[in-house]
């Protein structure tokens, strides 16, 4: 988020986290497990955290957070959905956690809200 700054003023305004509406943050109450190369996902993890999302290192911690109610939605994000192992896909399917590509995160940022995963599936099938 880029904060406005007026160079002509001597005193800069200070913005605190309390000034923001938590409902307007894109990844509020979203839990994400990133699967893929660490260097690639470091920046994505930072973006998710700035939008008040939580990033989990393992599927187990994501599932526990969903069960505890600390997050309302969990998603497994990989660089490309086809790169995920069969074992991960099976575990995600058993837990009813959606799996998507990193482009879903980017499109959600661009839209300013979470895009439903059904819309993503429809747009993917329409492109073939």
From TrEMBL:
It comes from the Eukaryota. InterPro entries: BRCT_dom_sf, TP53BP1-like. PANTHER family: TP53-BINDING PROTEIN 1, TUMOR SUPPRESSOR P53-BINDING PROTEIN 1. This is BRCT domain-containing protein.
């Amino acid at each position: 988020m880029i904060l406005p700054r007026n160079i002509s003023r001597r005193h800069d305004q200070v913005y605190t986290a309390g000034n923001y509406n938590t409902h307007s943050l894109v990844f509020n109450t979203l839990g994400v497990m990133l699967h893929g190369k660490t260097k690639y996902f470091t920046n994505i993890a930072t973006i998710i955290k700035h939008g008040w999302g939580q990033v989990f290192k393992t599927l187990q911690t994501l599932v526990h957070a969903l069960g505890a109610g600390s997050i309302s939605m969990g998603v497994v994000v990989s660089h490309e959905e086809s790169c995920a192992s069969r074992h991960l896909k099976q575990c995600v399917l058993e837990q009813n956690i959606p799996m998507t590509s990193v482009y879903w995160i980017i499109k959600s940022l661009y839209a300013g809200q979470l895009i439903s995963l059904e819309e993503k599936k429809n747009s993917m099938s329409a492109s073939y």
